[in-house]
């Protein structure tokens, strides 16, 4: 028998069991940098100041609805080492393509996050390849040493179920830079 230990290598899903994450609805997402490394910029006087890497992340996030026509973005903020955002699936693209209980994973929240991470990594790699080794900053050095794995595995999500939930989360997102000193993702 092999040495595979299910408890050691099997990761339990943190998603809601049986929920279709490709269905119409609003979702609050948090996507983190590996090891909580602050590579997207800094907080100054309660404002997030994006660096060039942070701008790449912002551009790719804002480009998401251009790639997937059933996606709308709502409030979001890029923090030094993570992104919070509300994303809406405006209609279920799977209606025409669904066969039985099978839902194409390429239309799910997980696929959207995966595509976003891949796009940012490609753009960051392209940027880093133009930087001379001697001219790289500590942030660029960290990125070079961690590519392609700059993102933490997986993401956090919350299904937004009503208006009050949406308003509470939108307020949390919009005031997040003001609370950076108390943020759980701040080392």
From TrEMBL:
InterPro entries: RAYT_transposase, Transposase_17, Transposase_17_sf. One of its GO terms (biological process) is DNA transposition. The lineage of its organism: Bacteria, Pseudomonadati, Bacteroidota, Flavobacteriia, Flavobacteriales. GO terms for molecular function: sequence-specific DNA binding; transposase activity. This is REP element-mobilizing transposase RayT. It comes from Capnocytophaga granulosa. Signal peptide: none annotated. Residues 22-176 form the Transposase IS200-like domain.
């Amino acid at each position: 028998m092999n040495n595979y230990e299910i408890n050691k290598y099997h990761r339990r899903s943190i998603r809601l069991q049986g929920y279709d994450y490709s269905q119409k609805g609003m979702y609050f997402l948090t996507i983190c940098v590996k090891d909580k490394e602050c590579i997207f910029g800094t907080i100054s006087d309660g404002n997030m100041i994006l660096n060039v890497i942070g701008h790449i992340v912002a551009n790719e996030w804002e480009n998401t609805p251009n790639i997937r026509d059933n996606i709308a973005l709502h409030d979001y903020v890029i923090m030094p080492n993570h992104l919070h955002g509300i994303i809406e699936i405006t209609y279920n693209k799977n209606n025409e393509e669904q066969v039985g209980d099978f839902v194409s994973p390429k239309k799910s929240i997980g696929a959207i996050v995966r595509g976003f991470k891949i796009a940012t990594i490609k753009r960051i790699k392209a940027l880093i390849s133009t930087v001379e080794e001697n001219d790289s900053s500590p942030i660029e050095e960290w990125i070079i040493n961690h590519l392609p794995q700059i993102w933490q595995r997986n993401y956090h999500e919350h299904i937004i179920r009503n208006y009050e939930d949406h308003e509470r989360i939108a307020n949390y997102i919009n005031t997040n830079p003001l609370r950076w000193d108390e943020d759980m993702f701040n080392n």
